[in-house]
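Hey L., structure's done. Input below.
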Amino acid sequence: MSKLPITRRGAELLKEELRRLKQEERPRIVRAIAEARAHGDLKENAEYHAAKEEQGFIEGRIREIESKLANANIIDVTQLGGGGRVVFGATVALVDEADGQEVSYQIVGEDEADIAAGRISIGSPIARALIGKEEGDVVEFEAPGGRKAFKIVEVRYV
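Output:
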């Protein structure tokens, strides 16, 4: 498996979720299973079956996070010094060529993307169009709503 890019912030969030799952959720579900077992017949014990199912989800998520962290290429954008070029982790201020509306996006890994928070996936059409460009460049790309064009106003590495 190839290394997948992730920002330092994204890696820290995954590490915190992993800590919470292992130190809080896992012990809680073990207690819930033990309590449900104490109620007797496991065949008809809905609490037991629900707790076991939740345990499976928690263990699956733990394995998924551990795998992602093991295969992560953690990038500290503050150390990049991209020289004004758009690179992974950069925050890019754009102006829509059609209506003059200003937007700002940080280019992040797949798991970190949150459009409402201004974080777009490296695999998105706009991010792919932006990578390698510089301030002042106009990028065009095919969006789900049709062809879009944005002018790059500023590139920040924060």
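The chain has a mean pLDDT of 91. The beta strands are 4-7, 72-75, 91-96, 102-108, 119-121, 138-143, 146-156.

-- N.
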